[in-house]
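Exercise 7b. Backbone tokens:
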């Protein structure tokens, strides 16, 4: 099977070429979803000459299959929950609350790791390029987009 790119850095450069109309604009910011989105977004931000920040999101794993996302939680509290999947799988309210509690702990760790003491770069009124390294269920990017929308960007790409 042929890969579309060699690694995340190359993927970022290819993505930057697609986002070329945003290059050099003062109203644009690149936002990375840690972990995998960071190297991709770094390449995009460098190529376009726009600032880079992170938007931590933590997956809500199924109780018996943690890698399968039933939703996600963002660092500003916005969440996405796949209600249909939760119903179909028989996830209890207590199990969902447990997953949310674990996600909050993980988000605290990610905020400290990726941002430290630095404040988030303001996104209000700006075009936000939301960047990840792929998509399995889409839960993380949905939670991130919802979180981002609460911060008042002019547009989310």
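Sequence design result:
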């Amino acid at each position: 099977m042929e890969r579309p790119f060699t690694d995340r850095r190359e993927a970022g450069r290819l993505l930057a070429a697609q986002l070329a109309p945003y290059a050099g604009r003062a109203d644009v910011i690149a936002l990375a979803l840690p972990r995998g989105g960071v190297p991709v977004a770094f390449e995009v931000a460098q190529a376009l000459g726009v600032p880079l920040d992170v938007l931590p999101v933590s997956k809500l794993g199924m109780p018996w299959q943690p890698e399968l996302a039933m939703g996600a939680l963002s660092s500003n509290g916005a969440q996405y929950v796949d209600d249909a999947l939760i119903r179909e799988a028989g996830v209890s309210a207590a199990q969902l609350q447990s997953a949310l509690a674990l996600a909050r702990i993980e988000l605290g760790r990610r905020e400290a790791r990726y941002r430290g003491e630095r404040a988030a770069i303001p996104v209000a009124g700006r075009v936000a390029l939301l960047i990840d390294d792929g998509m399995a269920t889409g839960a993380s990017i949905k939670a991130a987009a919802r979180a981002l929308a609460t911060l008042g960007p002019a547009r989310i790409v």
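Instructor comment: The domain at 8-17+28-156 is CATH 3.30.1310.20 (Ybab; Chain: A;). Strands lie at 28-32, 52-54, 57-62, 65-74, 79-81, 127-131, 155-156.
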